[in-house]
Amino acid sequence: MSEVDVARHVAYCRRCLNLLPGAFTSNDLNRLSLGFFLLNALDILNCLSCITPEEREEWINWIYSCQIPGGGFRGSTGTKTNEPSIFDAGHLPALYFAIASLLILGDDLTRIDRRGALDTMKRLQNEDGSFSPVVIGEDKFGEVDVRHLYCAIAAREMLSPIKAEEDIDVNAAIRYIQRCKVRPTIVYTHNSLMMEAMRRARAWSLMV
């Protein structure tokens, strides 16, 4: 098996962190997620030392510029609007990517609106324990599946310790995970359409 060319991989990650290739234009609204995977790649390769203090500070400040007033993070600064809207709302995966990226960069998280983030996660949780990705007022939007539950659980862990009154319903989340598990002949999922699609495919994977 050939080995990974670490130097080229690091060079690619650094280039993309400073200027994304044109092919990524359609993913402009997902900059936080792209940034997380690039930073995480550098971390896994033990190459975070290649980042200069100036770059580290610049990226940390950019991540905080994605923070939504009242709690949570948007996926990119390209969606900022004067008033809250479906186009500029906190996004659960973005919250996870933001906190994880800040920790990779060595930030102390003191600028995170912790109370607002925890309150947003509580409002994003559904009665069955699952999570919607977006909430505006009392209305929730977006697909409901275990990707978002993972993001919520991970963000909760990174923001711990958490007071009981600030916490999500952990027991409901566990029950939802148990209902989603796959067995040889029975597939449990959140709606009949997805269940039928999974039955036809006979295989599935979870990606964040």
Short description:
The chain is mostly helical and 208 residues long. Helix content is 47%, strand content 3%. It has a two-stranded antiparallel sheet.
Please, could you describe this protein's structure?
With about 210 residues, this protein is mainly α. It has one domain: Glycosyltransferase (Alpha/alpha barrel). A two-stranded antiparallel sheet has the order 1-2. The protein starts with 5 loop residues before the first helix and ends in a 7-residue tail after the last helix. The C terminus is likely disordered.
Number of domains: 1
Structural class from helices and strands? mainly alpha
Order of helices and strands: HHHHHEEHHH
| β-strand number | 2
Number of helices: 8
Radius of gyration: 18 Å
How big a fraction of the residues is strand?
under 5%
Q: Level of helix content?
A: 40-55%
**Average pLDDT metric:** 85
Which properties best describe this structure?
208 residues; mainly alpha; Glycosyltransferase; two-stranded antiparallel ribbon; 8 helices; 2 strands; globular
Write the layout of secondary structure elements.
Elements: H1 6-18, H2 31-44, H3 53-65, H4 92-104, H5 114-124, E1 134-136, E2 139-141, H6 146-158, H7 170-179, H8 192-201
